[in-house]
Each structure stands twice: as structure tokens, then as C-alpha cells.
């Protein structure tokens, strides 16, 4: 099952049909183009494209885009607060594009350190990958795959925003602040990965 966000709307690719606003049975890559068109140009907020061969559907879907891979982290301190950055007026998690030759883990640690000013971040475990689509100025359609890691930070807090990347604030948030301040002013895939991380910790 793959969840992809298109302008904050959800496209769910799955084997069985799911109870979403609109469901389309997969026939060919045209099905995917129709689904994307509905999300981009109508008021439909969520679509489920389903078919038995999910690997084939996912491969066809990826062929519609230029793929950019990124990595980032959910960094927690000893109090259990999580690190967020503010960019363009929205709360976000620190992340960035992977560089050539880097592993996902190396990229995640480097991006955290660059965007937040923290050093010696400890990488714990891989959480999941989120997907969203955007269109570049030249008209290229991009599928951004962001690989997220659970991380710890227990040193001296040297956090400061990377201004040249448009980051205006770096802040530690507790669970209540995340629910009341971050979620109303963030992206759907950020909310998704934070909630997934929380549920993994309560199991």
C-alpha cells in the first residue's frame, strides 16, 4: 500500500479497495493519469486506485515522474520533545535531498545537522518513507520520496535555523504542542509520519 500526497490530497494505491471518497479499479497507467487529474483539477480530496498487482501499479506510477529521494529525521531529546523547523510559515521536520553516493542514513544525519545546527545526532532506526508530488517551474512532475529515521539528541542544544534555506525557526515541541500548534500548520505527510512514529512507540 502506498500513500501519495498531491497538493495535500491523498492518492492511495492498494491491492484491495479501501473506503475512500472515490475508488478506481486499476486497468492501465491511464487509470493513474485519470486519478491524478481528478486530484489536481477537481474538488475530490482522496482517491483509491486498487489492483491485485501492487508492485506493477507502483512501478507504472513512478514512470510518470522524475524521482527525487530525500531523507530526514524525527529527532527526540531526553524529555521526549521532537525537533521541528519552520519554513515558509509552516512547521516541518528537518530533511533534504540525498547527495550522490550518500546512504539514506548519512543523508538524514547531514540534513539534520545542516538545517538545525545540532551535531552528534544519534540515528536509531528507519521509520518509513512518505511520498508527495509537486511540479517544478519548468513543468517537470516530481515524485519526492522522503525516507524518515527515528533519532535521538542528548547533547548541548546548539540548534539554530539555517536561514539561507529559508528556515526561520527551530523548536522542540512536546506532544500537546505538536497536536495544537504543528498539526494545524504542517503538511499531511508530516502529520502522517509523526502519528506513525507515535503508534510504533505505544505498541
Largest sheet, in brief, is: 8 strands, mixed
Helix content: 25-40%
Number of separate helices: 5
Average pLDDT works out at 95
Please report the distance between the alpha carbons of the first and last residues: 21 Å
Radius of gyration: 18 Å
Q: Helices and strands: which structural class?
A: alpha/beta
As a percent range, the share of strand residues is 35-45%
Low-confidence stretches: none
Strand order of the largest sheet: 3-4-2-1-9-10-5-8
SSE series: EEEHEHEEEEHEEEHH
**E-strand count:** 11
Shape by Cα distribution: globular
Descriptive account of the structure:
The protein is an alpha/beta fold and 203 residues long. It has helices at residues 29-41, 54-62, 104-116, 175-182, 188-202; strands spanning 2-6, 9-14, 22-25, 46-50, 66-76, 82-87, 90-92, 95-97, 122-135, 141-152, 167-173.
Amino acid at each position: 500500500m502506498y500513500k501519495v500526497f498531491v497538493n495535500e490530497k491523498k492518492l492511495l494505491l492498494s491491492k484491495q479497495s479501501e473506503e475512500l471518497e472515490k475508488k478506481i479499479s486499476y486497468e492501465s497507467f491511464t487509470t493513474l493519469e485519470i486519478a491524478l487529474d481528478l486530484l489536481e483539477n477537481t474538488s475530490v480530496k482522496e482517491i483509491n486506485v486498487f489492483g491485485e498487482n501492487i508492485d506493477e501499479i507502483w512501478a507504472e506510477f513512478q514512470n510518470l515522474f522524475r524521482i527525487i529521494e530525500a531523507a530526514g529525521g524525527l529527532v527526540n531529546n531526553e524529555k521526549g520533545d521532537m525537533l521541528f523547523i519552520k519554513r515558509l510559515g509552516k512547521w516541518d521536520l528537518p530533511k533534504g535531498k540525498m547527495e550522490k553516493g550518500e546512504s539514506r542514513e548519512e543523508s538524514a544525519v547531514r540534513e539534520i545537522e545542516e538545517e538545525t545546527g545540532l551535531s552528534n545526532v544519534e540515528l536509531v532506526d528507519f521509520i518509513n518513507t512518505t511520498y508527495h508530488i509537486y511540479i517544478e517551474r519548468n513543468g517537470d512532475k516530481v515524485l519526492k520520496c522522503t525516507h524518515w529515521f527515528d533519532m535521538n539528541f542528548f547533547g548541548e542544544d546548539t540548534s539554530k535555523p539555517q536561514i539561507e534555506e529559508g528556515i526561520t525557526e527551530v523548536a522542540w515541541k512536546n506532544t500537546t504542542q505538536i497536536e495544537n500548534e504543528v498539526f494545524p500548520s504542517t503538511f499531511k505527510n508530516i502529520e502522517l509520519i509523526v502519528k506513525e512514529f507515535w503508534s510504533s512507540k505505544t505498541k
